[in-house]
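Holo prediction — NAP.
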Amino acid sequence: MSQVIRFYEHGGPEVLKLETIDLPPPGPGEVRIHQHAAGLNFIDIYHRNGLYPVPLPSGLGQEGAGVVEAVGDGVTDFKVGDRVAYAGGPIGGYASDRNYPVKNLVKLPDGIGFEQAAAMMLQGLTSQYLLRQTYDVKAGDTILLHAAAGGVGLIATQWAKALGATVIGTVSSQAKADIASAHGCDHVFILSEVDLVKEVKNLTGGQGVPVVYDGIGKDTFMTSLDCLRPRGLMVSFGNASGAVPAFEPSLLAAKGSLYLTRPTLAPHIATRAALDKAAGELFEVVLSGKVKIEVNQRYPLADAAQAQIDLAARKTTGSTVLIPG
Ligand SMILES: NC(=O)c1ccc[n+]([C@@H]2O[C@H](COP(=O)([O-])OP(=O)(O)OC[C@H]3O[C@@H](n4cnc5c(N)ncnc54)[C@H](OP(=O)(O)O)[C@@H]3O)[C@@H](O)[C@H]2O)c1
């Protein structure tokens, strides 16, 4: 038996239902995981409300951590009792128990707990590819990162600092600014209170930054472009405020021969080698203490709807986990 969150139509948080289901044995290439924690991510909201439609009815959630309780045919690298975690599909992380393909699974090192793992796999692997692959952040770089006190924001801020960068962050309140600063963000601006382009230019000798990491989307996209130096890289990796409207590519020419990418995590961890390398780097920065995973909100699995309401209302900071009852 498993307690799971499911939904039968796209819509608001009220479509989420807690159900008890019979779980079949794990299929070939799968293990059954007894989950101690599941991660809450903004993409779960897009799946629920249909911005990223999923076939219905559906489970929800892309992240979890727990213990292997059964293995399917052909599984040789994982065994009963292994402590494991994952980020990414198949959807269905909001669950007490689930079957999951081992090709997307990693073993947890000693020293990384289940809540910490459920809080960091998706946002941490995202931070890894954003900072180490999409743009290779180096000592001396000054970067701009929106939602610096959020889930990705706090991890990426600390990781960018560990790489030697200067981090300009944006947030929506003084309380969030204080949290971002406490995690090393060098210059934090409350978006609604400043002319961000002017501030960024002031901090970069009039040049602009080489890269902007923008998970907010619609509300910040154009401002972000104007914060870039000529030939800078715009990384539009999310839509917390809504999807970015279509625009003419010639805009990128007019604003300084800019580059634009709209990356997602899945292609960055699509092979065992890529997943192990990225997860290894994530575990290393966390175990070394360079990146602290802040689990600032915990909700019972049954309260997943409330957790999503709070995330969408910008009430959360750092990472959030759902705990099966
Ligand atoms: N492409 C990828 O691979 C990938 C992977 C993971 C996450 N993401 C994206 O990265 C972003 C951050 O994800 P997360 O899970 O770590 O969430 P989060 O940053 O913890 O929460 C989203 C934050 O966005 C800011 N925001 C600005 N305008 C908003 C609005 N209108 N409504 C709600 N929030 C708004 C809020 O911070 P302030 O109040 O400080 O403005 C809010 O706390 C999301 O867009 C997510 O989809 C993308």
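READOUT: Residues 114-134 form the longest helix (21 residues).
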